Amino acid sequence: MSRVRAVEPWIEDPLVRFVTEAGARLTLIMTPSGQVLAQHGFTRAVDVMAAAALGAAIVSSTREIATTIGEETFRALNHQGIQHGIFLAEMATPRGPLLALVVYGPESSVGLVQLFYEDLVQELVAACPDEEPTKPVIAADFERDLHNSLAFLFGR
Amino acid sequence: MSLVNFTTREITCKIVYYGPGRSGKTTNLQYIYGCVPEDRRGKMVSLATRTDRTLFFDFLPLELGSISGFATRFQLYTVPGQVYYNATRKLVLQGADGVVFVADSQARQLDDNLASLQNLQVNLLEQGIDVRTMPTVLQYNKQDLPADLILSPSALDSALNFRDDPSYPADALTGVGVFETLKSISELVLKKLSQESPA
Amino acid sequence: MSEQFKQALDGITRVRGVRGALMVTDDDGLIIADAVMEGVRGDAVAALAASLSARMAKATVGAGVGEQHFLHLQAENGTLLSMPAPNGVLIVVLAENDVNVGLVRLEMLRAVEAVK
What we know:
The complex is a heterotrimer of chains A (156), B (199) and C (116). Chain B is an alpha/beta fold and 199 residues long.
């Protein structure tokens, strides 16, 4: 069973292919501000958000370092651990820049991840639809729900 | 920018706690982290210096539950307050849906509050955002300190609250005003979301 | 690319029918040095050969025949050869199907010496 979950459905098929071919353990596709569009391998939504926040921060801060040394940006970053590697890269799509964060184990390699990442980018660019018009999503009487949720969270 | 998924009916919003150094932004998040049941929050990530000053940001993901039928998640961030960390403040501010400005109520900190508020405006403008369109709530923290050291909420309103945004007196260490602040910014952010692009 | 590695790879590519030779890190599948013909995607060959070699290494140990010394994979339109070298290096060769495998293997052994 696929463990891919996509907020934006057009990302799902390319991501499933990437995960299968590159042997990635965890993958996130997100906006540069850390909003997750699709994910593979994470079990809790809150863990996804933390990983995305940190991944987006790494890309943002290295972009700033790049600027100070006269580079426009770094194409990709790779952190090599003992058991896991982390691959982070930014891609241009018709919907604007997106980030990919890939965690891989010893059964894969940075070479494989890089190789299939290029295919992923091409497939995402091809699959990316035009910007959807935004629609109103929250009913006008959301205050009661919000109050109840926050009251529950704070034990009040 | 908030993320809305119509298929799975999910909303994710980013709220940034802004303000001068040592005004209590991290304390707000720590209090929230301590109150919220474990299954409704993620790990609190703190990128801090060895002396516990925020270096890059603190981050706390929250599951609010269902709001108008949408599973609603909030990402709470703080920025480092010290003047020299402006580059990271700009990064954290990217894509924010709402801002909580945590002011230090001490009278001698008024200039720092003003400088930070101005810095917020500049950083938003650099991202093409008019501060008037950004849902904002002010929190006047450290109101528990002796009265001769602090400014009253109304004095702080006159000095800092130019746009008449909602404002709350607080003592974030003991949690006074923390819930009210979060509730207020949540309402503003969700209200803006409900008003955007009428059908 | 160090002169030593270059000479070792040139020795391999001089064999008729060889399309490319690479030195690859065996754990991350990245190229250390390469000499490949135009049209050969060196990064793809490196990544996939390293992955294949890692799996084959598990397979040979699992089958009780010990460490792998040489991998010869014959496909429809070509041949892939790989040989582990010391210090986490893998020698990879892409060739035509009618290549003299014995000769290539000899040159690959020389390349292994160059890595030591």
